[in-house]
Amino acid sequence: MLNRKLKAVMTAAIAAGIAAAPLPSVSALEVSDPGYYDALKGQNVSLNVYNWGEYISDGSEGSADVNAEFEKLTGIKVNYSTFATNEELYAKLQSGAVSYDIIIPSDYMIARMIREGLVQKLDLSQIPALSNIDPTYMNAAFDPTGEYSVPYTWGTVGIIYNTTRVSEPVDSWDILWNENYKGDILMFSNPRDALMIAEKKLGYSMNTTDESEIRAAFEELKKQKPLVQSYVMDEIFDKMGSGEAAVAPYYAGDAITMIDDNPDLAFVSPKEGTNTFIDSICIPADASNVQAAHMYINFLCEPEVAAANIEAIGYSTPNTAAFALLDEEAQNSPISYPSQEIMDKAETFLVLPDEVNTLVDQLWTSLLSTSAAADERSQNGNSVVPIVVVLAAAVGVAAWVMLSKKKKPSPPPSDTDDEEEYEEDDEDEDEDKEGEK
Question: What pTM did the predictor assign?
Answer without folding.
Answer: 0.78
